[in-house]
Design goal:
Its EC number is 4.1.1.37. The chain is an alpha/beta fold and about 350 residues long. It has 16 helices and 9 strands. The structure holds coproporphyrinogen III.
Length: about 350
């Protein structure tokens, strides 16, 4: 396997020295790009893009043609797993992701189909291998999955419930914890197999999106989210040197769970913008890399403001020791209303202002 031409992301995730802070952006392929909107209209829907490996590859590459990014991320969705298990995923223009069927009782759970990702989610694995070939080792490809808890919130509440904080999932946690554990354990199996299959298909780093972990009490978080993710990380394969590909856990409202992430055996943590990176670093020390965490709304302001705010994020991480172990990203996905030139300003600011934190 020829080496990566640009391995900044991998090096930063492993806390090795780099010349500048690497940057990629959550949802970097998406609706803020006119070429994405055009291709999606042609394909008919978001899922039609995901399920066609050539189109998924084309969409993945779209932001890379415009911007000097340090990683590509598989174009897909975390909800492909519950869809393959039989819940019937669709996207409503107003409400986002929805399911035809939800999990309310043991009978629903028994009806979930066990999945073999290489068969039931073949389109994802074909997209991964197609993208890897197209990238020609220029930059690494990130694969991903949702955390069991975050997938369960959508599977129990049926999507559209994020604004309300997924009340049915939260109620199940207290009224029927056994059922919730059984669902989460099925998802531990499915997510582990899915990530292993993505590694085999060519993913070079992994993200686990625990977007809704911050909705839980610290005690519930440990039992119902963190421990399930730790089990997944422990199941990922290691090569003959005992190394596995780097894994990033992303969470919203995750500051208070940081010590648990160290215990989960991950390499890096993605944080939202409510966290201060220097505080986070003081907790995790040199054990983990950090990814984040510019407020995505800043991309709706001017290029001057973007530059000022980028400098603050870089300084919050790098002022204490250095920028080593920092991956620049937004604190959540880029929104559809961002002008693409502001994305260019963001990347330029990171390239210009981060090298000072990487002088040895
Ligand atoms: O980051 C990337 O560029 C990779 C692709 C990616 C998508 N979804 C594409 C997408 C990734 C990594 C995801 C993860 C995902 N999906 C998460 C976890 C991360 C996060 O955002 O918190 C969650 C919770 C989902 C579920 C999901 N999918 C929601 C809530 C929505 C609707 C939100 C929205 O922006 O409309 C989606 C749809 C979705 N997933 C879109 C994209 C590009 C928009 C689809 C479209 O309308 O074209």
């Amino acid at each position: 396997m020829p080496p990566l031409q640009n391995d900044r992301l991998i090096r930063a995730l492993l806390r090795q020295p780099v010349d500048r802070t690497p940057i990629w952006v959550m949802r970097q392929a998406g609706r803020y790009l006119p070429e994405y909107r055009q291709l999606r209209a042609q394909a008919g829907s978001f899922m039609a893009l995901c399920q066609n490996p050539e189109l998924a590859c084309e969409v993945t590459l779209q932001p890379l043609a415009r911007f000097d990014l340090d990683a590509a991320i598989l174009f897909s969705d975390i909800l492909t797993i519950p869809d393959a298990m039989g819940l019937g995923l669709y996207f409503s223009p107003n409400e986002g992701p929805m399911f035809e069927r939800t999990i309310t009782c043991e009978k629903d759970l028994l009806q979930l189909k066990p999945i073999d990702p290489n068969q039931d989610l073949r389109y994802v694995m074909d997209a991964v291998s197609t993208i890897r070939r197209a990238l020609q080792n220029r930059i690494p490809l990130i694969g991903f999955a949702g955390s069991p808890w975050t997938l369960a919130t959508y599977m129990i509440d049926g999507g559209g419930a994020s604004k309300k904080g997924f009340p049915k999932a939260q109620t199940m946690l207290y009224s029927n914890p056994k059922l919730l554990h059984a669902l989460l354990d099925k998802l531990v199996d499915a997510v582990s197999d899915y990530l292993v299959a993505q590694i085999e298909a060519g993913a070079q780093a992994l993200m686990i999106f625990d977007t809704w972990g911050g909705l839980l009490t610290p005690a519930a978080y440990e039992t119902f989210s963190q421990q399930k993710m730790a089990e997944i990380v422990a199941r990922l394969p290691k090569n003959h040197d005992g190394q596995r590909i780097p894994v990033v856990l992303f969470t919203k409202g995750g500051m208070r769970n940081l010590p648990g992430f160290v215990a989960a055996g991950t390499d890096a943590i993605g944080l939202d913008w409510t966290a201060d990176l220097s505080d986070a670093k003081a907790i995790v020390g040199n054990q983990l890399a950090l990814q984040g965490n510019l407020n995505p709304n800043i991309l709706l302001s001017s290029s001057e403001t973007i530059e000022t705010e980028v400098k603050k994020v870089l300084a919050s991480y790098g002022n204490v020791h250095s920028g080593q172990g920092h991956v620049f990203n937004l604190g959540h996905g880029i929104t559809p209303d961002v002008p693409p030139e502001n994305m260019a300003a963001l990347i330029e600011a990171v390239k210009q202002h981060s090298p000072q934190y990487h002088q040895t």
